[in-house]
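From the pipeline queue, job 12 of 40. The input is one protein chain; the requested action is below.

Action: predict structure.
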Amino acid sequence: MPLEAVESPRLYRQIADQLRHLIDRREYPAGGRLPPERELAEKLGVSRPSVREALIALEVEGRVRIRMGSGVYVVDRPAEQPALISAFDEAPEGPFEVLKARELVESAVCAEVGTSAGPGDLAALDDILSRMEMAGLTGDELVALDRSFHVAIASILGNAVLARFVGLLFDQRINPYFRQLASYFENAESWREALAEHREIRDAIAAGAGEGAQAAMRRHLQRSQERFSQSFGEGPPKARPGGRETGRAAAAERLTRKN
């Protein structure tokens, strides 16, 4: 059964469903490597972030294993192991959709906050940033402080609904797909970069520059998307005469038949 072009707000789910079907049909056998992200995106006519979200969903489900510097490999899931993706009554939003939504919402918030912050507001932001600089923090502690920083900015406007909404958007990163993606790309260096970007936002707010704060927040969340978009470092496929690469080529051909 060939893959079909997909159109859906949950695009990554449809991509994952199609790849899972090919895996189940042994088009991509256990131990075999899936085509690179770029190739999958071109064949399906979708963005690479959507493909990455699908691959992360399949890894959380236990159908593939991502090996940094090598590629994405099919694993032999025991028959009695249920697919984790089916455990959700409603599938989580894709990580890149969440980050894009945050970019749009929080940059607009900062445009207003830039002209509203008082000394107490700035002190609260400074306290959070100082705690983020403490040595020995775990990833979960840094995520909690990151959340506090973004919610504290929204709280400056005195609108509880807006502050709660920003918090709810941030909390989407706690879903298993976002956490799995972050596990590959969050490290001490990425947190240093995020902290420096936080300080740029804080300084623009302190200067009373609404447009500057808006631009700083937009840059921060765009860079977050870029950090999560780094390559898995997939190497070139190793052809085997009459072997798996022939099967992969046939599967890749199915990607184009209805696109």
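Job complete. The longest helix spans residues 95-113.
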